[in-house]
Amino acid sequence: MRICGVELKGSDAIFAVIDVVNAKVSSVVCQTRKVKYGESAEQQSARFFYDAICGFIRDQNIEHIGVKQRAQKGQFAGGPVTFKMEGLIQLNPHATTQLFSGPTIAAATRRHDFQVPDQLNRYQADAYLTACCAAVALNII
Fold first, then answer.
1. Which of 110, 108, 111, 113 minimizes the C-alpha distance to 5?
2. Are 25 and 141 in contact (CB under 8 A)?
3. Contact 6, 67 (CB under 8 A)
């Protein structure tokens, strides 16, 4: 199964894709590592982001998406653009989407000792761990 982990940071959706075969996780190297939302007040930005997300999911044959959930209030609350991005990702018709909190991702990482592969950029680490957490939630690891 091919799973995409997503971390929303600022106006960027950062991706990491994994394949899970026989309970073994392998990282998939993709040309597209992130998609920028653009101007938040522009309708065209939302459409471009949605089309880019759907195209990425379709091109990479993603079956499931795990999104690192943003806090809704408090010091680490996500900005309004990240909530728009989260909603647009959930609306994609190509793959199921699931949200995971930071503590859930951390617990899955500790329990299964996930290690971020060297071929990923450092900024993709949380997206990779979110994809691995999604695999755990799907009971395929």
1. 108
2. yes
3. yes
Sequence-distant (≥ 6) Cβ neighbours of residue 95 within 8 angstroms: 4, 57, 62, 63, 64, 65
Q: What is the pTM of this model?
A: 0.94
* Residue 86 contacts residue 99 (beta carbons within 8 Å): yes
pLDDT at 80: 82
Alpha carbons 66 and 140: distance in angstroms, whole number: 14
Q: Is 122 helix (H, G, I), strand (E, B) or coil?
A: helix
Give me the count of residues in the chain: 141
In the predicted model, residues of the chain with pLDDT beneath 50 are: none
Q: With contact defined as beta carbons under 8 Å apart, do 79 and 104 qualify?
A: no
Q: Residue 73 contacts by C-beta under 8 Å, 6 or more apart in sequence? A: none
Give the per-residue pLDDT at 75: 65
Amino acid sitting at position 80: P
Q: Which residue's structure tokens are 């998609």?
A: 35
